[in-house]
């Protein structure tokens, strides 16, 4: 008997990887949008705490990427995507970038509690920016690899390369 709830498990590993990378693209776009908003608040010397809408947007994006990294980690452990080196690299980079971004969050909270309004070059912001840059690169590598290895849904992969490249471009500029 066919179980409709298990339909996701019947998709090919490339389709699952594409779905994971689409979620990561959305997360990457949200995190750089939230970071840009936060930077603008810092530059305007607005009263700052950790619990701001810009931080919520930033860490929601990081959360989406962390979930994607977790599913990618599962695929890596189960050797479901071993034959696709670029996709494996993408998921490994997502794990590293997510880890850096996730540890930057609590550290940034402590930094705000200790120092209040912080500068853009605080250690926590540098850690966060490094994680964001690694995540942006990872999503691009993964989407490009899926697009080159999949014969169907190629248009979907190409479509999501646009916000992916926007995030990568903007994160790279911000990082420099």
Describe, in short, the structure shown.
This protein has 176 residues and is mostly helical. Helix content is 80%, strand content 0%. The protein is built from six helices and no strands.
What does this structure look like?
The chain has 176 residues and is an all-alpha fold. 80% of the residues lie in helices and 0% in strands. Helix 2 (13-43) runs antiparallel to helix 5 (123-149), helix 3 runs antiparallel to helix 4 and helix 5 packs antiparallel against helix 6 (154-175). The protein is elongated, with a radius of gyration of 17 Å. It starts with 6 loop residues before the first helix and ends with a helix.
Calculate the mean pLDDT score and round it: 84
Radius of gyration: 17 Å
Beta-strand segment tally: 0
**Level of helix content?**
over 70%
Poorly predicted residue ranges: 5-9
Strand proportion: under 5%
SSE order, as H and E? HHHHHH
Biggest sheet record: none
Structural class: mainly alpha
H/I helix tally: 6
Shape: elongated
End-to-end separation in angstroms reads: 56 Å
Question: How are the SSEs ordered, and which strands pair?
Answer:
Layout lengths: L6 H4 L2 H31 L9 H25 L7 H31 L7 H27 L4 H22 L1
Can you tag this structure with a few keywords?
6 helices, 176 residues, 80% helix, mainly alpha
């Amino acid at each position: 008997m066919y179980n409709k709830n298990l339909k996701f498990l019947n998709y090919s590993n490339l389709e699952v990887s594409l779905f994971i990378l689409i979620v990561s693209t959305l997360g990457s776009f949200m995190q750089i949008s939230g970071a840009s908003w936060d930077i603008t608040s810092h530059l305007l010397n607005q009263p700052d705490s950790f619990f701001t809408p810009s931080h919520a947007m930033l860490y929601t994006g990081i959360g989406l990427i962390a979930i994607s990294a977790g599913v990618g980690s599962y695929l890596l452990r189960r050797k479901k995507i071993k034959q696709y080196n670029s996709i494996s690299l993408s998921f490994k980079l997502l794990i590293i970038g997510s880890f850096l971004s996730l540890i930057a969050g609590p550290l940034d909270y402590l930094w705000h509690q200790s120092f209040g309004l912080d500068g853009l070059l605080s250690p926590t912001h540098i850690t966060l920016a490094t994680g964001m840059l690694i995540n942006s690169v990872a999503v691009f590598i993964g989407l490009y690899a899926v697009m080159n290895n999949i014969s169907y849904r190629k248009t979907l992969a190409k479509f999501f390369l646009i916000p992916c490249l926007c995030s990568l471009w903007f994160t790279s500029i911000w990082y420099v």
